[in-house]
Write a structure and sequence with these properties.
alpha+beta; six-stranded antiparallel β-sheet; 4 helices; 18% strand
Length: 157
């Protein structure tokens, strides 16, 4: 299967072959990140990555690329994976996860645009406000507090 990964250092790599989720995302589990459905692409991140910052550092570039592709703006930690996504497969009894569509120019272009924006440039024909927005998202990813977990005991009757 064709997929792509943005590592926490911002490097984008493309892969063909088996996607071993535990090796790529981590054994804690994966969480789907919803993107603009017209792209036929899904993002994936570690389900609890933000709770273990030593093992899963915040992925600033990956978080910005996800936001630029329509995801909710929030910090994502560890590697970010991109696969194809086909909700019509459900009717056929198949998984919605597909190979990343070819060509992957949208992902490559957005990744390059984010890198330029974070370097202080205005990429391609995009407005300076888009680049500034990416820099604001990056600052949020770097500085947002780590979410906490609340455990409550419940008395049963």
């Amino acid at each position: 299967m064709r997929y792509a990964v943005i590592a926490p250092d911002g490097e984008l790599t493309h892969h063909d072959g088996d996607l071993l989720w535990d090796d790529v995302i981590g054994p804690e589990g994966k969480a789907r990140v919803r993107l603009d459905e017209r792209l036929a692409v899904a993002g994936w991140a570690n389900d609890v990555g933000l709770l273990n910052p030593k093992r899963y550092p915040r992925n600033v570039v990956g978080s910005c690329v996800l936001a630029a592709l329509g995801a909710n703006v929030q910090p994502y930690a560890g590697p970010v994976v991109f696969t194809g996504w086909n909700p019509d497969n459900t009717a056929l009894g198949l998984l919605e996860i597909d190979a990343l569509p070819q060509p992957v120019t949208t992902l490559d272009t957005v990744h390059g645009d984010v890198l330029k924006a974070l370097a202080g440039q205005t990429p391609r024909e995009l407005s300076p406000s888009w680049a500034e927005q990416m820099r604001e998202i990056a600052e949020h990813v770097r500085t947002a507090p780590t979410p906490g977990i609340t455990i409550r005991t419940v008395k049963l009757p």
